[in-house]
Amino acid sequence: MSDKLFIGVMSGTSIDSLDAALCRISQNSFKLIASHTIKWDESVHTLLHSLCSSSSDEIEKMPLACNSIAEHEARVVTELLDKANISADKICAIGTHGQTVRHRPEQNFSLQLDNGPMVAAITGIDTIVNFRAADLANAGQGAPLTPIFHKLLLSKQGVNRFVLNLGGISNITALDNKGGILCGFDCGPANTLLDLCCREILHLDYDADAKVSSQGHVVDSILNELLQNSYLSKPFPKSTGREDFNRNCIAPYLDMCKAGKLAIEDLLYTLSVYTVKCVSLHIEAIVNKYKLERGGELVLCGGGALNPLIVRLFEKSMLDFDIKTYISQDFGIDASYLEAQAFAYFAYLFVSGIAPDIKDCTGATRPSILGCLCPATDGCYSSRLK
Predict the structure, then answer these.
(1) Is residue 333 annotated as involved in ligand binding?
(2) 13 is in an annotated binding site
(3) Within a 10 A sphere around the Cβ of 228, how many other Cβ atoms?
(4) Cα torsion angle, 332, 338, 341, 347, sign
(5) CA-to-CA distance for 324 and 64, rounded, in angstroms?
(6) 295 labeled binding residue
(7) Transmembrane segments in this chain: where (predicted)?
(8) Is 14 annotated as a binding residue?
(9) Residue 351 pLDDT more than 90?
(10) How far apart are CA 160 and CA 152, in angstroms?
(11) Whole-prediction pTM value?
(12) Residue 352 assigned ligand-binding role
């Protein structure tokens, strides 16, 4: 396939915004052309958060949420194309992640709310959705999928490199010194618990530039309690989400903040240390399992890579492994849009009929073509049939 234009759309566990990336992709090249972000309407934001927990009216809420998600996805795509001055008929396909509200691979399902046919109808562009289902059908976790994209952009000959995406949940890709994928899995929380604290205590979406958390100190008793989470000792491959890391994990500490018995800056600082500690424990496990030599590089991406406190904590923690810490911007890669770019790449793989091999990351029994096509009436798919 010659180079073509694809759009990836991503909303993460934190449900803070919707990111879109326009990319030019071929077999031998990948380039980000433009990117754009929109906020969720407040009513939709509230609805999506409510659906992350069980309730009696889920069946009524879910189709309404799917439609709202699709409308927002179509809007971010339309605004992105306007920004880039590119018409919809130039786009081969959109890859949308949808919004995860349940991730239960042990029960063989992961639920991303979306309405691909609506996105295709509004934009006039073929839309590919439901990227995790095929991996789950082949006994995989359905996550993480991003290691294949991390390998494309960030593998490096001669260096063991760890790529860490800090979204709502942190997920890591371990690349060996020949550029191959050793493993990839979710480590634990990144922004999800921090942002939850900010919303509930500070009435802010997040702690911008870590201004509040940087004033705090670690509370060892809380950190030690958090480190007892059973997910941390599970063998990989594994994946997680709000099922393991949610408000219940920190409810007593939120109550302490509200009662004036715990400073919010100390809770935020402790949760930041917890994020880093979860990753450090897993890097140690990877180094031991694969008998890696000391040294290497850690590349931070995702929204958490823009948090100066978390970056400093990683720089300090990685000294124990002689690993040097970078952020993806150091290599010309926008940390905020890496996952949106990944879903543009997944759309490219689907259209190309490529089944990526991510067995070492998800535990699937075999590679599978990821995604389900929702064709637009006059999109690329129908044009090929005529």
Answers:
(1) no
(2) yes
(3) 8
(4) positive
(5) 46
(6) no
(7) none
(8) yes
(9) yes
(10) 15
(11) 0.94
(12) no
C-beta of residue 370 within 8 angstroms of C-beta of residue 349:
yes
| Residue pLDDT, tens place only, 157-184 | 999 999 999 999 999 999 999 999 999 9
pLDDT at 242: 86
96 labeled binding residue: no
Q: In this structure, what token pair is assigned to residue 353?
A: 């009929």
Beta-bridge partner residues of 32: 23
Helix or strand (DSSP H, E) at 212: none
296-301, strands of its sheet edge to edge: 181-189, 169-175, 161-166, 296-301, 323-327
Q: Which CATH class is domain 147-331?
A: alpha beta
* 207 in a known ligand binding site: no
Average pLDDT of span 342-360: 97
Domain 4-130+337-385 adopts which CATH fold?
Nucleotidyltransferase; domain 5 (3.30.420)
Instruction: For 178-209, write each residue's pLDDT tens digit.
Output: 999 999 999 999 999 999 999 999 999 999 99
Structure tokens at 141: 């976790």
In the block, tokens 């994020």 appear at 275
Residues ≥6 apart with Cβ < 8 Å to 283: 162, 172, 298, 318, 321, 323
Token duo for residue 255: 């109550």
Asked if residue 16 belongs to a known ligand binding site, the reply is: yes
Which part of the chain has CATH 3.30.420.40?
4-130+337-385, 147-331
Tell me the pLDDT band of 1, cut-offs 50, 70 and 90: low
The Cα 307–Cα 375 span in angstroms is 39
Average pLDDT on 219-224 reads: 98
Q: What is the CA radius of gyration of the chain?
A: 20
CA distance 174 to 180: 8
